[in-house]
Amino acid sequence: MTTVMKGRLFEQRSLGFLQDHLSMSLRRVGGKGDGGIDLQGWWWLPAECLPDTDTHLPGRVDSSALPRKRLRIIAQCKAEEKKIGPRFIREFEGTVLRHSASLAANGHDWHSLRETRHSLVGLFLSTSSFTKASLLQAYSSPIPMALLHLPRALETTAAVRGSAQTAFPDASPFASGEDDALPSTLLFNSALGGSDGLFRGTLQPRWQISAKTGQGYPGIWSNGVPIRSWTPEYDDDHLETPGRLAMMAHAFG
Fold first, then answer.
1. Are 213 and 207 in contact (CB under 8 A)?
2. Which burial class, exposed, middle or buried, applies to 186 when counting CB atoms under 10 A from its CB (0-12, 13-18, 19+)?
3. I need a labelling partner for 87 at 20 to 30 A (CA). Which of 64, 68, 134, 165 fits?
4. How far apart are alpha carbons 85 and 206 in whole angstroms?
5. How far apart are CA 170 and CA 181, in angstroms?
6. Could you tell me how far CA 203 lies from the centroid of its own chain?
7. Other beta carbons less than 10 A from residue 165's beta carbon
8. What angle is formed at CA 88 by the lines to CA 87 and CA 92, rounded to 5 degrees?
9. How many helices (H) and strands (E) does the chain have?
10. For the segment 28-57, what is each residue's pLDDT rounded down to a tens digit?
11. In terms of pTM, does the model score above 0.85?
12. Distance of CA 147 to the CA centre of its chain
């Protein structure tokens, strides 16, 4: 199997996984002019957990009558054989910032780069683990960011992961001295999940084990309660990549 085919299969797998478990309604945009983005779309979260987001952003009510608000999200998928080092995270930071600047310049939803930066979430998905240096790079970033390790064969021995207060668990590679992230892990950095981050500490990432199948999967919790994954059946809003935004600006400028 070619590297390109492996990457596309991982992107397709990620789309279904994110919708089934993390309330993300994304679509694939990888290709020429994608600006380094593989997936993009919306993250549908409980409105009460997003106190600082723009009140004009569209909302929906899910099947349990719970109000949901959406956050714009862009994702990069890496099906690498080697561990993910800090260079990948630094490059992804640049991708998110460029996309934020494109959105602000073209008047998409927000009026300033600062507002856009804090309302756009970057998600980095990988089939290989993250090194300690890459975790530190993500954790120190001012950009709201999530890391998701989805190995080809998901681990089934882990318990529920995550911290009730911060995105990175206390018993993490930072404390243990190990060079790898915990296997099959969902992590939020401080700019996303911290008390001063986008979620104001209201949402926590967890890694859960199905009692029926024994398979692991990511989830999001709030106040000790899991949040059921939900996305609207129809979401026709058009999203643009930086490359397409630049072409539109050139065509109509």
1. no
2. buried
3. 165
4. 23
5. 12
6. 13
7. 12
8. 115
9. 7, 10
10. 996 665 678 999 999 999 998 887 665 555
11. no
12. 7
